[in-house]
Design brief:
It is a single chain. The chain is an alpha/beta fold. Helices cover about 40% and strands about 15% of the residues.
Length: about 750
């Protein structure tokens, strides 16, 4: 492999269309590609649809499609238009270089050199300047190797700075004289500091990741991946690939990305648009089932029972309990004739509908038609010749409607759940043999509730209402659903998600070691069963590309306690000095200090403010002080808080983002400490910029987020903030693995035993 950077001594090209050195030629191709993309966009903007639409509705639809197309063709100057190139040994046909929107090169065309990028770009003749990373011809860029070059002679990667090519690196895959080596440009792209939301990994997808990304739409894939393995990015790129390969089908059926919270969704929301996909919806599980206002919370024992899959049977019984055996015949009067349907026949109809296990609402709609059909049979036996209009009229007859209301009354999902949770006798009748008396008592509300609106519904209650709603009327199914951080879902939440893809497929992403809810899943087999996807393929990503080896090895000491048998992530990144575990001596205020003890001395505050000001300038910052330090406790700030502020200042001397992660209970004190120190900070989900690179993160919201540098405050407090030790250690495992470049752990209290060994 050979790497190249620009040579300042290289004279300018005599012919700008054919520069003498490869880097200049690639720069010329980039400029030409940007011009071609601009021309493609201008062509769409110039479209006149006035004579091609039949009415204003068609015109509005077409205008919206054109607007989306214009957005997709935007040229982001800071984003490389292409990041790689393949030189094939043999010509590649036009069908292998098709664009995501069906852009087809001339059918007789064939190519040997192809540039790989985020979207398809073609010239005025239709020949590709850049081919979509999802096209078949692009696949060898990710999978070709010295052992299996896939007909590729040369793979070239490009290094960029602010959207301009600054270097390139060649691999001659079919040359036996060249030995296989790791790519420095690839490593640099993986380790590039991150400011702002999550970015795509389209230039750095690894072979094992690409296999998951390009797996078919027909099957569900479950990806078990530890911290830094790229599972979230893999899931998002899989959506982008499926939209490329099955655009028309998914345009009809829809796609959805489900994340654990709004902060996480905000963090990932720019990935798909950067890949040209603007129509994918995002939601949380709570948002999916939000049919009532959630204003309450459940104690952990109640939430666990409400999330148990057994509640589905309780709800099924509760819904069906509304069906009442017919007590009297139905008599339909039409003109001078009276038509009678006896009780036994009505009982047969009800029994048949119950035996079919139909949705409650669908069966309720079918019952009047069955009664009407029985009346029509009698009419025909009497010599009449009724048609379908007569059957519909009979089904709407007041006597039939009254009978249906008495036998199969309407059921409101929220009112049903309200009755279950507030009526002990009703719950006992429906939960007999399913929930124990103690379990029933645990989920019953202690105070009566007057109405659905006045109830303080919990998130688990909303899921129960969603389940009841599906028992009454089938939930609409999408074509594909991506479920991230899936390990934290309860069985009932899995069922809620599964209903959204009952006729489609799913990509399930998670890490069993990061399950931090009391109901976290114990195995993917159980999770997929509740999701309704027992035939799913489970893939495991064990190679870590983001978290440094030293950091992941330290966090992995917790695995035997939190996820026995789970494979440790093997990080490919060596970064000596990336981990610093620092004990903080405690003073009179105690390990964490009281919530209000955040006042720095005037001198200390001025010093910190000066450091912050210096850090806004380019270059390094040094703080020189005469020792010894002031006596402990003289600053008014607890020793731990002072150490945290200092560690944040230290981390901000590096390029990229910094996350300060702490137990939720510690956030108010740290907020005051940062404010007193003059350190500006963001909340989770806030977009980092060059001016605001520090984010204060409650441990409960850290999952799925990444920062270049992380300061972790008091691990023991993170553990103690959870209802049990295993959940607390899992929460700590999550917090320890959010760092991409460096981690500082500060503790005044004792570390958990697994972490204190050989500290």
């Amino acid at each position: 492999m050979s790497a190249h950077a620009p040579d300042p001594a290289t004279p300018p090209a005599d012919d700008p269309l054919d520069p003498p050195d490869p880097l200049a030629r690639e720069r010329a191709h980039l400029a030409a590609s940007r011009s071609a993309l601009r021309a493609m966009r201008e062509d769409v903007q110039a479209l006149d649809i006035r004579d091609v639409t039949a009415n204003w509705v068609n015109a509005a639809v077409l205008e919206a499609q054109i607007e989306d197309r214009i957005k997709a063709l935007a040229d982001l100057s800071h984003t490389p238009l292409f990041f790689g190139r393949l030189d094939y040994l043999h010509l590649v046909g036009a069908d292998a270089a098709e664009g995501a929107e069906g852009e087809r090169p001339p059918p007789e065309a064939a190519y040997r050199t192809l540039h790989i990028g985020r979207r398809h770009v073609h010239d005025a003749d239709g020949d590709p300047m850049v081919i979509d990373w999802r096209a078949p011809a692009s696949q060898p860029f990710y999978r070709a190797s010295k052992k299996d070059p896939l007909d590729v002679g040369l793979r070239r990667r490009f290094g960029y700075t602010a959207g301009d090519i600054t270097a390139y690196e060649d691999e001659h895959l079919s040359d036996p004289a060249e030995t296989a080596r790791s790519s420095k440009l690839l490593q640099a792209e993986i380790e590039r500091p991150r400011v702002g939301p999550m970015r795509d990994i389209v230039a750095t997808i690894q072979p094992e990741q690409d296999e998951i990304v390009r797996s078919g739409l027909g099957g569900t894939v479950c990806v078990q991946g530890g911290p830094g393995t790229g599972k979230t990015a893999v899931g998002l790129h899989r959506v982008a690939y499926l939209l490329y390969a099955h655009r028309e089908r998914l345009a009809r059926t829809g796609t959805l990305v489900i994340g654990p919270n709004a902060s996480f969704l905000h963090y990932i929301e720019q990935v798909l648009p950067a890949l040209g996909e603007l129509e994918v919806k995002q939601a949380t599980v709570d948002g999916l089932v939000a049919s009532v206002d959630v204003r309450g919370t459940d104690p952990a024992p109640a939430a666990v029972i409400k999330g148990d899959a057994r509640m589905a049977e309780v709800l099924r019984r509760a819904v069906r309990s509304h069906v009442t055996p017919p007590a009297e015949p139905v008599v339909v009067v039409r003109g001078s004739r009276r038509w009678r349907v006896p009780v036994y026949e009505l009982e047969e109809m009800v029994g048949q509908l119950l035996a079919r296990d139909m949705r409650y609402g669908a069966a309720r709609e079918a019952l009047p038609q069955r009664i009407a059909h029985a009346v029509l049979v009698r009419m025909e036996e009497a010599g009449e010749a009724p048609d379908d209009r007569v059957q519909d009229a009979v089904a709407r007859n007041p006597a039939v409607k009254a009978a249906v209301k008495a036998i199969w009354p309407p059921v409101d999902p929220a009112k049903l759940v309200l009755r279950l949770l507030s009526d002990a006798e009703f719950l006992a009748a429906q939960a007999e043999g399913v929930l124990t008396p103690d379990e029933q008592k645990t989920i019953l509300w202690t105070k009566p509730v007057r109405s659905v609106k006045s109830a303080k519904w919990s998130a688990a209650d909303a899921v129960l209402i969603d389940e009841a709603g599906d028992l009454i009327a089938r939930t609409h199914s999408l074509g594909h659903v991506v479920l991230d951080e899936a390990q934290d879902l309860s069985p009932m939440q899995y069922r809620a998600v599964g209903r959204r893809c009952s006729t489609g497929s799913a990509t399930v992403l998670g890490d069993l070691a990061q399950g931090t809810t009391p109901w976290a899943t114990a195995s993917w087999t159980d999770a997929l069963r509740h999701l309704g996807k027992t035939d799913a393929v489970v893939e495991e990503l064990t190679a870590g590309f983001r978290v440094p080896r030293e950091v992941i090895a330290y966090a992995s000491r917790l695995l035997p306690s939190i996820a026995p048998g789970l494979a440790e992530v093997a990080s490919v990144r060596e970064s000596p000095g990336s981990l610093s575990v620092r004990p903080v001596p405690t003073g009179p205020a105690g390990p964490a200090g009281p919530a209000g003890s955040t006042g720095l001395s005037e001198l200390d505050a001025a010093v910190v403010a000066a450091c912050v000001e210096s850090l806004t300038h380019e270059g390094s910052t040094g703080l020189i002080a005469a020792g010894p330090a002031e006596p402990a406790g003289s600053t008014g700030l607890s020793e731990l808080d002072a150490a945290v502020v200092a560690a944040c200042v230290e981390s901000l001397t590096h390029e990229g983002s910094t996350g300060l992660i702490a137990a939720d209970a510690r956030i108010p004190a740290l907020r005051e400490a940062l404010t007193a120190a003059g350190l500006p900070y963001l909340s989770p989900g806030g977009e980092t910029t060059a001016e605001a690179r520090l984010t204060l993160v409650p441990a409960s919201l850290a999952k799925g987020l990444e920062y270049d540098y992380v300061v972790l405050d008091e691990p023991a407090a993170v553990v103690d903030g959870e209802p049990d030790e295993r959940t607390g250690l899992r929460r700590l495992y999550v917090a320890l693995t959010r760092a991409v470049s460096g981690l500082i752990v500060l503790h005044a209290a004792e570390l958990p035993e697994a972490l204190s060994l050989s500290e």
